[in-house]
Amino acid sequence: MSIRLFPAILVCWLLPIAFGAEQDALAIEAIIQARHVPYAAGILDPIVSLSDPTQVVDYTRCGDSAVWTGHYLAAEAFRYKVTGSQDAMNNINNTIGAIYDLINVTGGNVLARCALPANSPYAASISNQESGNGIYNGSVYGAPWIWVGNTSRDQYIGVFFGLTVTYDMVSDQTVRNWCSYLITRLLQNLLDNAWTIVLPDGSVPTTFLIRPDQQLSLLLMGQHVNGGAFGHKYSVESNALSPTVPVPIGVDCADQTSSYFKFNLDYLTMYTLKTMGSGYSSFWYGLAYDELRATTSDHQNAHFNIIDRAISGPNANRDAQTQALLDAWLLRPRLDVYRDFSSQFPSCSGNEACQPLPVEDRVTTDFLWQRDPFALSGGGAGDIETAGIDYILPYWMGRYLGVITD
Predict the structure, then answer these.
(1) Residue in 217, 404, 203 with CA at minimum distance from that of residue 322
(2) Which of 53, 55, 331, 402, by CA, is between 20 and 30 Å from 221?
(3) Is the pLDDT reported for residue 3 higher than 60?
(4) Could you report the per-residue pLDDT of 93-116, keeping only the tens digit for each?
(5) Which residues pair with 140 in a beta bridge?
(6) Based on the number of CB atoms within 10 Å of its own CB, is 85 exposed (0-12), middle (13-18) or buried (19 or more)?
(7) Are the CB atoms for 149 and 112 separated by under 8 Å?
(8) For residue 240, how many other CB atoms are within 10 A of its CB?
(9) How far apart are CA 359 and CA 346, in angstroms?
(10) Four-CA torsion 39, 44, 50, 56, nearest 10 degrees
(11) What is the pLDDT of residues 198-236, one digit of tens each?
């Protein structure tokens, strides 16, 4: 089974030429729809033929499908708010449906990392790739599906982020009701299990108990979309837990490079706490965010910069840098080619450069802004295509916030 691109789309995808920021964003979104959502339940990355990169031979990165599906939903919600595009609305509805499937396929109210039909030609390969996370049997609308377990906190945070942004950006009441409904199912399940992710077989992949900042962020989103169910709970917990929020953020900031994806989760968490929180708790949220921003503000990260714009307001230098960083993103390879710049930039510690590498020279990955900007080498075999959500999310969010004009 193969999927081929229309020539016009292929040109937009392969050539590192900026025909105009919106055209670039729309070309990336066309690729996502053509190649990265082969089934209803979320984002996957295609493995392409090395001899013909327009031909899909397999799929991969299933284990992080939920988190990037949430990010993609947020991008389309900001796009809809800015443009009113019917295509964006269609993508929003389809992506909400994907999240619905990622919950229903587990047979309860817990989130799957990824899901796909059991009869998919890629099912055996993905089952092998994700065997360490556990492969489970489920169903979607009566059809047999498989799903990936060992669901992590980042999958939840990404999905909650996407649903809450959509709730705020889309005025259609049916869409908002769906966002509230899905957040309520997931959050109530976490509360019923004492902030612990419990899979249907009783296994426990992880818990939110160690992260009061993330607990409060999820509760605040729950209050925002369903105050009757979660308003009192957030009020009680925020008074008790908010003084502890700077602690886990401080631990993360103590090491700027290892597990760099933690900073993406921290920024999504602080986006909620800082833009929705108020009163006594906001003081502690501010302390935590100030440390996070002080640690990462010089990392040349467009995604973090845009979130800082939402939290802190306009800043001419930061906003100009954001635009330049997104322009540089367009010059990057879209396949996971291995890159080694160890001979071109000074090293201060092993594989770590002394300063963040230029965006166009950073290692290839799934979502650039969650990867170590100091890494001098990395990548893969050059056959996995990135979805480009790391461009369209800060782009459309930047359009909404006035950082980027069409």
Answers:
(1) 404
(2) 402
(3) no
(4) 999 999 999 999 999 899 999 999
(5) 143
(6) middle
(7) yes
(8) 12
(9) 16
(10) 10
(11) 999 999 999 999 999 999 999 999 999 999 999 999 999
321-338 confidence digits (pLDDT tens): 999 999 999 999 999 999
Six-digit token string for 103: 């919950």
C-alpha 272/C-alpha 269 separation (Å) is 6
**Residue found by looking up tokens 């790391």 in the block:** 390
